[in-house]
Amino acid sequence: MLRFDHCNVKTCADELLALGNNNMKMWYIFEWLAKHDELQYGTQAEIVKLYVDDELVGYSLLENFEARTDKIVHHQGVTYQDLGVVHFVTVHEHRNKGYATLLANALYKEIIEPMLARHSDVHAYVTATGRAVPLMERTDIPPINLVKQFYSDVSFEVKVVNYLRGQEQTI
Fold first, then answer.
1. Containing domain of residue 95, as a range?
2. How many domains does the chain have?
3. Can you name the residues that pair with 50 across neighbouring β-strands?
4. How many CB atoms within 10 Å of residue 110?
5. pLDDT over threshold 70, residue 167
6. What CATH number has the domain bearing residue 15?
7. How far apart are CA 88 and CA 103, in angstroms?
8. From CA 81, how far away is CA 85, in angstroms rounded?
C-alpha cells in the first residue's frame, strides 16, 4: 500500500538521518534541523515522503525560500521570486520503480502549485537541477515556473530572466 506524508522536515529529521548519509546536501539540512530546530535565513524544508507497506522508499524535498526577502529580485521592471530548490531521493533498493515520479507529482500538487498560486503577482519559480529536472518536467508545472540552472557562474539575467522568457515564447 502506498502512503504519502507531507510535513516540515524539522518534525522528521531523525527519521531521515537514520536513512544514512546517501545525499550529502540534504544530510546537512537534516543534521542542522536535528540540532537547531530551524534553518537559517527563514528557509524552510518541506518534504513529501512516500511509504510502501509502511517502509520509507523515497522523498521529495523543497528548500522553501517563500519567506526570504533576499530571494526576490527586481530586474528591468519585473519582480522575480525564487521559491526554492527541489531535491529527490529514492532509497537504493527501491530505485527504478516509478516512485520518484510519484513523489515529483505529489511535491508539485501539495507544495509547489499552492505556492505559485500565492505568488501570482510576481514571476515566481522553483529550481531543479541534475536528475530532478526530468522529474519536475513530467509534472504539470508550467515551464515558465521552472529554472534548471542553480549552481552556475552565469548572471541572474542569463540563468533566470532569459531562460524564463524563452519558455514563455514556446507556450
1. 2-170
2. 1
3. 4, 58
4. 15
5. yes
6. 3.40.630
7. 8
8. 12
Burial track 37-60 (b if 16+ CB lie within 10 A, e otherwise): eebeeebbbbbbbbeeeeebbbbb
Q: What is the pLDDT of residues 112-159, one digit of tens each?
A: 999 999 999 999 999 998 899 999 999 999 999 999 876 556 667 777
Residue 78: alpha-carbon gap to chain centroid: 23
Give pLDDT tens digits for 52-63: 999 999 999 999
pTM of the model: 0.86
Q: Which three cell numbers stand for residue 107?
A: 511535491
* 61 alpha carbon, distance to own chain's centre: 5
How far is it, in rounded angstroms, from Cα 53 to Cα 148?
34
Residue 19 is predicted with a pLDDT of 85
Counts for the chain of helices (H) and strands (E), in that order: 7, 7
Cross-strand pairs, 64: 44, 84
Measure the CA–CA gap between 135 and 55, rounded to whole angstroms: 22
CB 160 within 8 A of CB 147: yes
From residue 125, give the alpha-carbon distance in Å to each of 35, 51, 118, 137: 30, 28, 12, 13
Cα separation, 80 vs 160, in Å, equals 9
| 141 in Cβ contact with 167 (< 8 Å) | no
User: What's the rounded mean pLDDT across residues 72-96?
Assistant: 94
CA gap 94, 68 in Å, rounded? 35
* 38-48 average pLDDT score: 93
